[in-house]
C-alpha cells in the first residue's frame, strides 16, 4: 500500500549525542564543566598528592606560597599545608554538595509531587509546612539544626539538605500541576496504572529537566552554606574544608592573606562552575526556551 | 474603461527556510493575483507554507531565519519586497489588515474592546476622540455585535468567541483596507458561529470592495466563500482556478486527493446493530462543575456540564456524540471512562456498574473500556518508547512484559505502522502516525468498548481520512463498539451508525445517523446541519486511491 502517512522519518541520533551537541554550544558551560572536572580530579587525587593527614604540621608556620617546594601554596599559622587542604577540601565540598543536594531534591520531589498531583487538602497541608520552612531564614535554621545535632560532617550535610528542599518542592509542585492535566496522564490512568506509578514513572521523568538544572544551584548553595558554617567555626574540625581554612585564615588576614584568599578562590570557582553547569544543562534540556 | 490593477499581484515568490529545515524553500515560485472584490482561498495542509505567505505580504517574516529569496509582491501596483520597516508599518493596518485564527490571543486581555479599536484609529488617522469613538461603535455595529455601546466597554473575556472574532474583523476593517488577509479565521469556532462569520466576511467585503486572501485547510469553508482557489502542496502551488472548477473538477492529483479526503455527508448503510447485546449503558448521568471562587476572585456560578444523560451502546456499533463546544460531550467521554467522577447516575459495562467500583475493581475494569484521545501529541508520554507505550496496559494488567512487547509490535502492523517504529519516541512521528499509536495502545488491552474523544480533529484532512478509514476497518474486523465524540458532523456522518446530538449538557436528539441527517427534528440539530460549511457541495469522488 502506498501510504504516505505510514512512512517513517529517518531515525534520530541517540539522545546523549543530541544533548552533548546542545550543551557544547554554550561556551561558558564548557568552561564550567572544565572547572568542575578539575575539582573532581582534585578530590580524587588528594590522596596521591599528599598521602598524609592534611591537618598535620607540614612545614614552618606561615610560609608564603612558592617559597618552599614541599608546601607550594604555603602553610597556615599552624604549619598546615594549604595546597593539601585545598585538595582534601574539594572532597568535603563535593561530598556535601552532592549529598545535601540529593537529600534536598529527594524531600522536595516527594513533597512537591504529592501536593502537585493530589491537590486539595494534601496540597494545603504540605504547602503550609513548606511555607513554615520558607519563612525561617535558611541560615538561621541551619545554625539551629547544627546546634541541636552537633557539628559532625554527616549532620551538617543532612541539615543543609533539610534547609534547602523548599524551593525544589515548589518547583516540582508547579511542574506536576501542569503535567497532571495533560492527556498522557489520563491515558495512563485509563490503562489502570496506579497512582504511585503515574507519579514516578509517568510524570516525574517529564518534570525532571528543570529539577536537574535547579540541582546545580542547590549544589552551589550547599557548598556556600557549609563554608559559611565553617567560617563561623561551626564546621566539622576533623576535616579540612575550604570554609574552615578561610575561618582560620581570618585571624592572619593582614599578615598572610593567602591563607584565606586561596580557599576563597577555590570556593568562588567551584560555585561558579556549578552555576555555569546549570546554565548549560538548561540550554541542553530546554532547547525551546532559548533559541537565539 | 481603464482596467484597475489587481490589488495583490504575487510573482514567483520564494521564501527561504533556515538550514536544517525539512525543505530549503517554504514557498517556491508562488504566483497569485487578487482582483478588487475577490475572495481568494489559499488551501493547503499544515506545513504547506500558507501562513508564511501571509507573513511575507505583511512583512512579518521572522527574518533573518526565514526570508524572501526571490520574486515580487506588488500591492496596488507598488512593490512591497524591500520596503523598510517603517514604510511597511504604514501599509499594515492602513491598507492591508489581517484577521488571526485565535481571537483570544490576538486581543489584549487587559484593554477594553473599544480601546483596542480606538488604538488602530489613533495610530493611523487624524480623527479626534469623539470621531474615533463614533467610528468604533459604527464598526461594532457593522459586524453585528448586539448592543455595540456596551460591547465597546467590554473586555475580551467578557464576550463570546464568535463575538471576539467579530471584534477582530471590526478592527481590521476600521480603516477600510484594500486587502484583508484572513488566516484560518474560523478554525477555532463552532460550526454555527463559523457560518455567521463567513457570511459576515463576505458581506463586508462586498460593501467595501476589498480583496480577501483567505487561508484555510477546510474545503467546506472554501466551498462556502471562495471566488478563486489556489492549492499549495509543500510550498508549491499545484493548482489555481475559479472555485467551481477546482472544487468540482480538480485536475492535479494532489487536489483530487485532498478533495477526495473530505468526508462526504452521506451516512453509512444502516447496520442491524440494534439487535446485538448492549455493552455500555449510561443511565441518568449528571455532572456539575462546582463553583470555585476565593475571597478576591468573586463567586462564579456552578456549571452544569451534563444533566441527566442516558444512552446505550450496542456491540459492534458506533455511537456518535456530537455537539458544539460547551455542550458537555467531552465530559461524557471522561465520565464513561471514569477519568472524571460523576455526580450521579450509572455506567454499566457488561452489566457491571463502573461508577460503583472500588479503586481496585476499577483498575481491573479499565481493561474493558479504552480511550483514544484528541491530541496525539499530548496523550503519549514524550519520554517513553512507542513499544513501551503500547505494551504498558497489558503489563499493568499482569501480562508477561516480553510477550506484551511482541504483541505491541504486531499491533503496530495492524495500525499500518512499520515495526521499526517500536523503538522510537513519540515526537519522531507525524500527527497521523501518533494517532495510530494511540489507537494501537487502546487496542492492546482488547477492550470491549473504545471511547474516542475527537480523535481526528487535530489532523489534516488527508490524514484524517486515513485514520477514519483505519478506525472503521478495525471496528469491522475486530467487532469493536465505539463511542465517538466529535464536533465535526462530516466525520460523524462517515463513521457513526447512530448519533446523539447534545446541547448544553442535554440530549436534544438521537437516532440512526442517516435518519437524523435526512430529517432532523430538533431546531438545534437543524441549525447545526444547515451550518456545515459547504453543505451544498458534494465532494466529487475519485477512484485514485491516493488517500
Features of this protein?
heterodimer; A: 292 residues; mainly alpha; MetI-like fold; 70% helix; globular; B: 547 residues; alpha/beta; Rossmann fold; 3 domains; six-stranded mixed β-sheet; 20 helices; 20 strands; 37% helix; 23% strand
Give your account of this protein's structure.
The complex is a heterodimer of chains A (292) and B (547). With 292 residues, chain A is mostly helical. Chain A has a domain at 91-268: MetI-like fold (Orthogonal Bundle). Chain A is built from eleven helices and no strands. Helix content of chain A is 70%, strand content 0%. The longest helix of chain A is centred in the middle third of the chain and has 37 residues, at 82-118. In chain B, strand 9 (228-233) and strand 10 (236-242) form a beta hairpin. Chain B has three domains: 8-95 and 179-261, P-loop containing nucleotide triphosphate hydrolases (Rossmann fold, 3-Layer(aba) Sandwich), CATH 3.40.50.300; 110-174, no CATH class; 273-280 and 315-341 and 356-530, P-loop containing nucleotide triphosphate hydrolases (Rossmann fold, 3-Layer(aba) Sandwich). Chain B has a six-stranded mixed β-sheet with strand order 6-7-8-3-9-10, with helices on both faces. Chain B contains 20 helices and 20 strands. Chain B is α/β, with parallel strands linked by helices and 547 residues long. Chain A binds chain B through residues 1, 3-9, 11-12, 182-184, 186-194, 197, 202, 205-206, and chain B through 334, 337, 339, 362-364, 366-367, 370-371, 373-375, 378-383, 392-393, 396-397, 416-418, 420-421, 424-425, 428-430, 432-433, 436, 438, 441, 445, 462-463, 466.
Amino acid at each position: 500500500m502506498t501510504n504516505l502517512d505510514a512512512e517513517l522519518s529517518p531515525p534520530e541520533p541517540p539522545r546523549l549525542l543530541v544533548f552533548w551537541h546542545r550543551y557544547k554550544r554554550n561556551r561558558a558551560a564548557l568552561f564550567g564543566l572544565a572547572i568542575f572536572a578539575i575539582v573532581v580530579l582534585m578530590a580524587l587525587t588528594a590522596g596521591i598528592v599528599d598521602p598524609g593527614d592534611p591537618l598535620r604540621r607540614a612545614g614552618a608556620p606561615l610560609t608564603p606560597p612558592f617559597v618552599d617546594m614541599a608546601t607550594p601554596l604555603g602553610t597556615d599559622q599552624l604549619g598546615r599545608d594549604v595546597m593539601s587542604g585545598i585538595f582534601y577540601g574539594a572532597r568535603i565540598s563535593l561530598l556535601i554538595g552532592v549529598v545535601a543536594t540529593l537529600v534536598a531534591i529527594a524531600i522536595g520531589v516527594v513533597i512537591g509531587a504529592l501536593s502537585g498531583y493530589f491537590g486539595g487538602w494534601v496540597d494545603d497541608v504540605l504547602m503550609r509546612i513548606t511555607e513554615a520552612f520558607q519563612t525561617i531564614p535558611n541560615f538561621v535554621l541551619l545554625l539551629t539544626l547544627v546546634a541541636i545535632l552537633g557539628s559532625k560532617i554527616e549532620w551538617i550535610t543532612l541539615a543543609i539538605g533539610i534547609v534547602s528542599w523548599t524551593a525544589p518542592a515548589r518547583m516540582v509542585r508547579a511542574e506536576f500541576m501542569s503535567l497532571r492535566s495533560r492527556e498522557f496522564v489520563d491515558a495512563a490512568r485509563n490503562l489502570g496504572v496506579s497512582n504511585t506509578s503515574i507519579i514516578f514513572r509517568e510524570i516525574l521523568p517529564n518534570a525532571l529537566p528543570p529539577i536537574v538544572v535547579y540541582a546545580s544551584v542547590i549544589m552551589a548553595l550547599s557548598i556556600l552554606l557549609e563554608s559559611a558554617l565553617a567560617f563561623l567555626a561551626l564546621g566539622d574540625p576533623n576535616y579540612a574544608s575550604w570554609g574552615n581554612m578561610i575561618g582560620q585564615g581570618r585571624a592572619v588576614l593582614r599578615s598572610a592573606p593567602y591563607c584565606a584568599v586561596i580557599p576563597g578562590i577555590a570556593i568562588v570557582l567551584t560555585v561558579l562552575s556549578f552555576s555555569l553547569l546549570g546554565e548549560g544543562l538548561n540550554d541542553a534540556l530546554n532547547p525551546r526556551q532559548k533559541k537565539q | 474603461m481603464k482596467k484597475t490593477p489587481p490589488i495583490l499581484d504575487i510573482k514567483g515568490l520564494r521564501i527561504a527556510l533556515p538550514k536544517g529545515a525539512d525543505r530549503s524553500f517554504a514557498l517556491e515560485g508562488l504566483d497569485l493575483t487578487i482582483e478588487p472584490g475577490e475572495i481568494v482561498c489559499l488551501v493547503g495542509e499544515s506545513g504547506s507554507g500558507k501562513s508564511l505567505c501571509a507573513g511575507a505580504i505583511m512583512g512579518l517574516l521572522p527574518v533573518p531565519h526565514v526570508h524572501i529569496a526571490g520574486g515580487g509582491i506588488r500591492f496596488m501596483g507598488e512593490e512591497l519586497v524591500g520596503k523598510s520597516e517603517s514604510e511597511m508599518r504604514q501599509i499594515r493596518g492602513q491598507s492591508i489588515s489581517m484577521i488571526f485564527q485565535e481571537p483570544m490571543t490576538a486581543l489584549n486581555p487587559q484593554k477594553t474592546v473599544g480601546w483596542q479599536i480606538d488604538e488602530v484609529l489613533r495610530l493611523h488617522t487624524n480623527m479626534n476622540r469623539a470621531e474615533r469613538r463614533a467610528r468604533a461603535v459604527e464598526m461594532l455595529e457593522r459586524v453585528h455585535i448586539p448592543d455595540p455601546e456596551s460591547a465597546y466597554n467590554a473586555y475580551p473575556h467578557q464576550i463570546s468567541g464568535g463575538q471576539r472574532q467579530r471584534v477582530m474583523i471590526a478592527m481590521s476593517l476600521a480603516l477600510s483596507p484594500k486587502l484583508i488577509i484572513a488566516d484560518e479565521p474560523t478554525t477555532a469556532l463552532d460550526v454555527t458561529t463559523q457560518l455567521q462569520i463567513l457570511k459576515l466576511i463576505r458581506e463586508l467585503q462586498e460593501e467595501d470592495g476589498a480583496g480577501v486572501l483567505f487561508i484555510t485547510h477546510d474545503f467546506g469553508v472554501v466551498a462556502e466563500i471562495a471566488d478563486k482557489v489556489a492549492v499549495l502542496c509543500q510550498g508549491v502551488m499545484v493548482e489555481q482556478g475559479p472555485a467551481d472548477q477546482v472544487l468540482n473538477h480538480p485536475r492535479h492529483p494532489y487536489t483530487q486527493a485532498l478533495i477526495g479526503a473530505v468526508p462526504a455527508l452521506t451516512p453509512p448503510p444502516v447496520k442491524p446493530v440494534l439487535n446485538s447485546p448492549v455493552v455500555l449503558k449510561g443511565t441518568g448521568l449528571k455532572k456539575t462543575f462546582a463553583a470555585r471562587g476565593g475571597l478576591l476572585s468573586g463567586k462564579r456560578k456552578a456549571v452544569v456540564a451534563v444533566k441527566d444523560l442516558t444512552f446505550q451502546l450496542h456491540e459492534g456499533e458506533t455511537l456518535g456524540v456530537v455537539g458544539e463546544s460547551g455542550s458537555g460531550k467531552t465530559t461524557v467521554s471522561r465520565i464513561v471512562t471514569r477519568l472524571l467522577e460523576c455526580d450521579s447516575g450509572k455506567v454499566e459495562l457488561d452489566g457491571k456498574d463502573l461508577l460503583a467500583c472500588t479503586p481496585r475493581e476499577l483498575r481491573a475494569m479499565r481493561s474493558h473500556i479504552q480511550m483514544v484521545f484528541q491530541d496525539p501529541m499530548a496523550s503519549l508520554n514524550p519520554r517513553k518508547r512507542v513499544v513501551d507505550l503500547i505494551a504498558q496496559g497489558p503489563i499493568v494488567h499482569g501480562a508477561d512484559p516480553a510477550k506484551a512487547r511482541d504483541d505491541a509490535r504486531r499491533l503496530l502492523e495492524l495500525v499500518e505502522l512499520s515495526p521499526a517504529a517500536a523503538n522510537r519516541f513519540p515526537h519522531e512521528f507525524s500527527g497521523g502516525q501518533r494517532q495510530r499509536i494511540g489507537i494501537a495502545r487502546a487496542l492492546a488491552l482488547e477492550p470491549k468498548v473504545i471511547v474516542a474523544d475527537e480523535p481526528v480533529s487535530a489532523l489534516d484532512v488527508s490524514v484524517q481520512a486515513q485514520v477514519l478509514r483505519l478506525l472503521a476497518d478495525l471496528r469491522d474486523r475486530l467487532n469493536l463498539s465505539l463511542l465517538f465524540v466529535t464536533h465535526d458532523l462530516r466525520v460523524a456522518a462517515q463513521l457513526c451508525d447512530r448519533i446523539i446530538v447534545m446541547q448544553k449538557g442535554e440530549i436534544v436528539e438521537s437516532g440512526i445517523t442517516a435518519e437524523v441527517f435526512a430529517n432532523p427534528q430538533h431546531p438545534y440539530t437543524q441549525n447545526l446541519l444547515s451550518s456545515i460549511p459547504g453543505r451544498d457541495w458534494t465532494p466529487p469522488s475519485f477512484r485514485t486511491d491516493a488517500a
